[in-house]
Amino acid sequence: MNRYKQRVTLAVAAVLLPFTVACGGEKADSGAVSVQQPVTGIDWRVDGITVGAATRHAPATARLRIDEDGKAAGNLGCNQFSARATVNGDRITIGDLRTTRMACGEERMAFERALARILTTGTLTARADAGKATLTDGDGDRVHLSRSTPG
């Protein structure tokens, strides 16, 4: 009788296990979970920033690169910068920027100040997909990025 009970239990488990796995798989395929592409180790062109409801296009020189070894560098639109960066999954924190001190037109300098503020006021949430990325700060302000083309 004990062996019969063991066989029945194993048979029921063998029948139910595929259903449990199938149900669990359907939930994961619902579209709620997406594969996150890396943001680090890529040369990004800054396309623009969104502060509040206003989006501003970036100067053509604006660039950003964040490496896994804790370095961030690029161009804010006029001045070059470097900084320490901490990357933890999709969370990025960029420390104080060290910048060159070139003077550019007021529009470029205003863009540069706004970009620097977004990058350094706290932890950013990164989202990347299909050659585009967005860094979002705690206030909902965003930096829009595109993968730079070589050359």
From TrEMBL:
<dbReference type="InterPro" id="IPR005184">
    <property type="entry name" value="DUF306_Meta_HslJ"/>
</dbReference>
<feature type="signal peptide">
    <location>
        <begin position="1"/>
        <end position="24"/>
    </location>
</feature>
<dbReference type="Pfam" id="PF03724">
    <property type="entry name" value="META"/>
</dbReference>
<dbReference type="InterPro" id="IPR038670">
    <property type="entry name" value="HslJ-like_sf"/>
</dbReference>
<feature type="domain" description="DUF306">
    <location>
        <begin position="37"/>
        <end position="144"/>
    </location>
</feature>
<protein>
    <recommendedName>
        <fullName>DUF306 domain-containing protein</fullName>
    </recommendedName>
</protein>
<dbReference type="InterPro" id="IPR053147">
    <property type="entry name" value="Hsp_HslJ-like"/>
</dbReference>
<keyword id="KW-0732">Signal</keyword>
